[in-house]
C-alpha cells in the first residue's frame, strides 16, 4: 500500500442497489480516479483459480462478506498494479472488522463519508432490473445481502456518524441529481482526495 498517495480520503456508503457503482463510475470518469470494484476484483480472483477462489465463490453466492485478510490483499494488488494515485474503492469496507483491519494495515481513514440512503424496495427493484447475468443477482441472494448490510455494513455508517463524518444523500432520486450532490459536496476539490471508500 506504500504507493497510495497521501492526503484526505472520503467514503461513499450505501446498501446493494443504492447506486454506489454508478456514482463510482461517474466519479472515475469526471475526476480521473481509478474505479476498483471489489465485486469485479473478487470475480476475477475466482476465475483465476487462486487458492481462495472456491471460498470466495461460495461466500459471494451466499451473500457473505469475504474475510478482510483476503480482500485487503486483493485490493493492495489492484492498487499497486494501477498507474494512478487516486482510487475509488467500491464495495469496501463492508463490516466494522473490515474497516478496523484496513485502517490498521494502511493507516488510512476517510476525512468524511457520504451515505447513499435508499429504501430496500427500490434497491431490490434496481438489482433485479439491471440484468447483468451475475450469479449473486437473484432474489434469494439479494435478500441475504440486504440482511448482511443491515447487520454488518450499517454499523460502519453508524461508526463514522458517531464521529460527525457522515453526509446523507437521498439515493432514491435520479442518478444525475445524486451525482450533482456528490460533485458539489464531495468532489468540489477533487485533487485533495486520493482515495474514496464505497461500501
From TrEMBL:
Reaction equation(s) it catalyzes: UMP + ATP = UDP + ADP
Domain of life: Eukaryota
Keyword Protease part of the UniProt annotation: no
Pfam families with a match to the protein in the record: ADK
InterPro entries referenced in this protein's UniProt entry, alphabetically: Adenylat/UMP-CMP_kin (IPR000850), Adenylat_kinase_CS (IPR033690), P-loop_NTPase (IPR027417), UMP_CMP_kinase (IPR006266)
GO MF term set: AMP kinase activity; ATP binding
Entry keyword set: ATP-binding, Cytoplasm, Kinase, Nucleotide-binding, Nucleus, Pyrimidine biosynthesis, Transferase
GO biological process: one example: 'de novo' pyrimidine nucleobase biosynthetic process
Entry's EC annotation: 2.7.4.3
EC class name: transferase
Xref: NCBIfam families: UMP_CMP_kin_fam
Entry's family note: Belongs to the adenylate kinase family.
Full protein name: adenylate kinase
Amino acid at each position: 500500500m506504500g504507493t497510495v498517495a497521501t492526503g484526505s480520503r472520503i467514503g461513499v456508503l450505501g446498501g446493494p442497489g443504492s447506486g454506489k457503482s454508478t456514482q463510482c463510475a461517474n466519479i472515475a470518469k469526471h475526476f480521473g480516479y481509478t474505479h476498483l470494484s471489489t465485486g469485479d476484483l473478487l470475480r476475477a480472483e475466482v476465475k483465476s483459480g487462486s487458492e481462495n477462489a472456491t471460498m470466495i465463490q461460495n461466500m459471494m453466492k451466499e451473500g457473505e462478506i469475504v474475510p478482510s485478510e483476503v480482500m485487503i490483499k486483493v485490493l493492495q494488488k489492484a492498487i499497486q498494479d494501477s498507474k494512478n494515485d487516486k482510487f475509488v474503492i467500491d464495495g469496501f469496507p463492508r463490516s466494522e472488522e473490515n474497516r478496523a483491519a484496513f485502517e490498521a494495515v494502511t493507516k488510512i481513514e476517510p476525512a468524511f463519508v457520504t451515505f447513499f440512503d435508499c429504501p430496500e424496495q427500490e434497491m431490490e427493484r434496481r438489482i433485479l432490473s439491471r440484468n447483468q447475468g451475475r450469479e449473486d443477482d437473484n432474489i434469494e441472494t439479494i435478500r441475504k445481502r440486504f440482511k448482511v448490510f443491515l447487520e454488518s455494513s450499517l454499523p460502519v455508517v453508524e461508526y463514522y456518524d458517531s464521529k460527525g463524518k457522515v453526509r446523507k444523500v437521498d439515493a432514491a432520486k435520479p442518478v444525475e441529481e445524486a451525482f450533482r450532490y456528490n460533485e458539489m459536496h464531495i468532489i468540489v476539490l477533487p485533487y485533495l482526495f486520493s482515495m474514496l471508500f464505497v461500501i
